[in-house]
Amino acid sequence: MSHTAHIPSHRKPRRSASKVSLRAGVAGGVLSTIALAGAAAPANAAQPVTETIEMPTLTGSLATTAAATVQATKTVAADLQLQAAQDAAASSAAKDAKKAKDDAEQKAAEAKAKAEAAAKAKAAAAERASRSAERTTLSAAASTATSTFKASNATGSAAAIVNFALAQVGKAYVSGATGSSAYDCSGLVQAAYRQVGVDLPRVSQDQSATGTQVSLSNLQPGDILYWGSSGSAYHVAIYVGGGNFVGAQNPSTGVVERSLDWDQPTGAVRVL
Q1: pTM
Q2: Where are the domains of the chain?
Q3: What 3-state class would DSSP assign to 146?
């Protein structure tokens, strides 16, 4: 028998792998503890290692966890990509919607402008038609008035003045005009008297102070009617008999025949 057969060994029995298999976190903790122990007792560093420490191996559970982590990372990345794509699509849709809205508003504004222009054109056409109808009516009335007046006792220069004034009914009023297609109030009176060789002043103020002042109750055809005061009248017309006068009133009516009751004059003058 060997002399060393009964000498006990200083090496401890090896532990089985199944008992020392630890998770990676536990193995790290053991290694850290050994490192700290070595730093605290350097005197023991020279002593021989009497215990064998086996490194833990990765278990199936840890591998599964790592695989799950990788899969989770891929899933998060995919989610982020999907979210980015959705955000980009939403931004593009918002821009398209805004452009569509702006286009729609612009088209609506253009349509409104066209409708307003059409309405104005229609109103203008209706007004022109109304004026034309009024002028036709006034012309017919003037013709009737002329016939009535010619049948009266008016003769000579007065008749010529009245007939000329009645013939101008329906023509346009234009400020400063003296004929033959348009007149203002004093231009019409001046043109009528020119038919009998009488040269009247141009403006209504001077015409209202020409000749002899006569009462409105003693009017004769051909007398000049005025509105305002003598010498500063703002409107004149020609008395045509039968309680009516002919005057170039304003741009809306043009030359018309009206009753004295329609617009009572202030006074009158007789030139003939």
Answers
A1: 0.47
A2: 18-57, 152-270
A3: helix
